[in-house]
Design brief:
One of its GO terms (molecular function) is phosphorelay sensor kinase activity. By secondary structure, the chain is α+β, with helices and mostly antiparallel strands. The protein contains 20 helices and 16 strands.
Length: about 600
């Protein structure tokens, strides 16, 4: 087997290799750079395959046919490579179509001229028989457009290198390897092409493309060459909202993104990288020392810096970068801006401080209400009672006015009492100490206290509660609940009416009810109670139901503290029944004798029973 056969076999192998790279690229064909890689490798495959046929050619016509096959790829390989570089680097993204037209203009002309070379001989002037050579049957005399195309190819190579240089300087290690693979794919054919300038008749350029194929296959399989392009990785790096600074194993800064420059403006002052980090971070000695003294593991620490009269806060994360093994090759420092969070925390603390001051002022205000308002009103109640008794005895003509004044003062005093009780419950200052109590005794005590007020309207109050019923309740709260419900019933029951307090046991709960035959609850109050507003609206001028609403709202809250519920049934002109539940039990029997239980009657000022 002679050298021509060996050379043709090697060229066929190179063709197969480039077709294999085309296949690998086809699997990533959704990426524009992969589509370009397919065209590059197919063009190079035509070049190598045609040259293999040229080596085996036995006549001038065979040589010309082989050259036609070669020139399917020769004019376009370099232009396609530069277009791929443009895609990788993101150059002139807006004008890429126009740039492609200009880029492929000369290759298209060269292809057309070679196709018609026998008419004008602008590519090859003539073919010379070369009987001495053991490889090529004919040598060619190059025409002017061959030289134009050669110069154009070298300009393309230089342009691609110039585009790659800035990206290579600032790229991540994995991206630098991808750029190196792409440069090798272009430089190798040009390097082999230089042998033609030494006077040799053998064109080694296709073997350079074989080297390119090996490099591209290695890049695709080893470095994900077509999975994430350097441009894409650079854009990811640049568009990260957190600041990122990359250090090499010598603690030199090799790259950073725009967000990092906002954190450390000194990064933009350096003319070239890599640069010693001490030159850049000299204004932040604590940060510089942290990076230098970093251990084996990841570290997190805070970082603060003033910028335009504003203090900026960052959470920093310092991590090591490892190669394929366990040897660290650098560090990555990330800045996460938490300034807004810190400022929000400061605002919340200030709001909390102001709210605390307002609460303190409110506490003082209610203290004033409790001591400086409640006590004078209580004294005024006593004085109006004495004055009312004296005027009644003397049958004074203004006794009715005094009695009305007495009633208003008493109502105001009760409203203040309810307001203070509600305030203590909302502040959590109401002590809740449930104990076992005889429900009958507690109710009788409440009826005695309300007897005077009921007697003024000749209202008959009765109690129907079994003596064996006990409830687990806080005595003070239960007194307030009963006092409010009885006061409400007395207010809306006419002269000569009746009020009945009863209780029944259902399971572990006792249902206590206060029934009257008064005017019933007005629709507005009933609606407010059903809405269960925490604070019921104040009454309008001349509306005396506001006190009732507030007292009922307070009663409902105290019942809930006991774990019970409060509800009502009311019919205008017939009466109202307020019921609430308490936890309780029967002392000796779980059955209440409705027919034989004791009935107590309370009426008149004397409170007799």
């Amino acid at each position: 087997m002679d050298i021509r056969q060996w050379m043709s076999i090697m060229l066929f192998v190179a063709t197969a290799l480039m077709l294999f790279v085309s296949f690998l690229s086809y699997q990533k064909r959704h990426l524009p750079v992969a589509k370009t890689m397919i065209l590059i490798m197919l063009a190079a495959a035509f070049y190598a395959f045609g040259y293999a046929l040229e080596v085996l050619s036995g006549s001038l016509s065979d040589v010309k046919l082989s050259l036609q096959i070669e020139y399917v790829g020769i004019p376009f390989v370099s232009a396609l490579w530069l277009f791929q570089v443009i895609q990788f680097t993101g150059t002139a993204a807006r004008y890429r179509k126009r740039l492609a037209v200009l880029l492929f203009l000369i290759p298209t002309v060269v292809f057309s001229l070679h196709l018609t070379n026998d008419w004008h001989h602008l590519i090859y002037e003539r073919y010379l028989l070369n009987p001495v050579s053991s490889v090529s049957l004919y040598s060619t005399v190059k025409g002017p457009w061959y030289k134009v195309h050669t110069v154009y190819n070298y300009l393309i190579l230089i342009s691609g290198i110039v585009l790659f240089m800035p990206m290579y300087v600032r790229a991540l290690p994995i991206v630098r390897k991808q750029i190196f693979v792409l440069l090798l794919g272009a430089v190798a054919p040009m390097f082999f092409n230089l042998f033609l300038w030494t006077g040799t008749s053998i064109d080694f350029t296709p073997f350079g493309f074989a080297v390119s194929g090996v490099a591209y296959a290695w890049g695709i399989l080893r470095f994900n060459l077509l999975r994430l392009t350097p441009l894409a990785m650079a854009r990811v790096f640049e568009t990260i909202r957190d600041g990122v600074i990359l250090f090499d194993y010598e603690n030199q800064i090799v790259s950073y993104n725009r967000a990092a420059e906002k954190v450390i403006p000194e990064l933009g002052l350096m003319k070239r990288y890599p640069v010693d980090m001490a030159e850049v971070l000299s204004g932040s000695p604590e940060l510089l020392e942290r990076v230098r003294a970093a251990g084996d593991g990841d570290e997190r620490f805070p970082f603060e810096r003033f910028h335009v009269n504003r203090k900026l806060y960052y959470n920093c994360s310092l991590s090591f970068i490892y190669d394929t093994g366990s040897t660290p090759i650098g560090k990555i420092l990330m800045f996460s801006d938490i300034t807004e969070l810190k400022e929000s925390e400061a605002r919340l603390r200030e709001n909390a401080r102001q709210l605390s001051e307002l609460n303190a002022f409110k506490d003082k205000l209610f203290t004033i209400v409790a001591h400086d308002i409640r006590d004078p009103i209580a004294l005024l109640v006593s004085l109006t009672e004495l004055l009312g008794d004296e005027l009644t005895i003397a049958d004074f003509e203004h006794a009715e006015v005094v009695r009305e004044l007495k009633g208003q003062v008493q109502n105001t005093f009760q409203l203040v009492e309810n307001l203070l009780d509600w305030y203590r419950s909302q502040k959590g200052k109401v002590s809740f100490h449930p104990q076992g109590w005889s429900l009958q005794q507690v109710v009788r005590q409440a009826l005695v206290l309300s007897g005077t007020k009921a007697g003024m309207k000749q209202i008959r109050m009765t109690e129907k509660i079994g003596g064996h019923l006990t409830v687990r309740a806080d005595k003070e709260m239960l007194d307030l609940i009963l006092r409010n419900l009885l006061s409400n019933a007395i207010k809306f029951t006419g002269i000569g009416g009746s009020i009945e307090v009863g209780a029944v046991l259902e399971g572990t709960q006792i249902i206590v009810s206060v029934r009257d035959n008064g005017a019933g609850i007005d629709e507005q109050t009933a609606e407010m109670l059903r809405l269960e507003e925490p604070i019921l609206k104040a009454p309008a001028a001349g509306d005396d139901s506001g006190e009732t609403r507030f007292g009922l709202a307070l009663t409902r809250e105290f019942v809930r503290i006991h774990g019970g519920n409060l509800w009502f049934e009311s019919e205008p002109g017939i009466g109202t029944i307020f019921s609430f539940t308490l936890l309780g039990s029967a002392g000796e029997s779980d059955t209440i004798n409705h027919g034989g239980r004791e009935e107590e009657v309370y009426e008149g000022y004397s409170g007799r029973r």
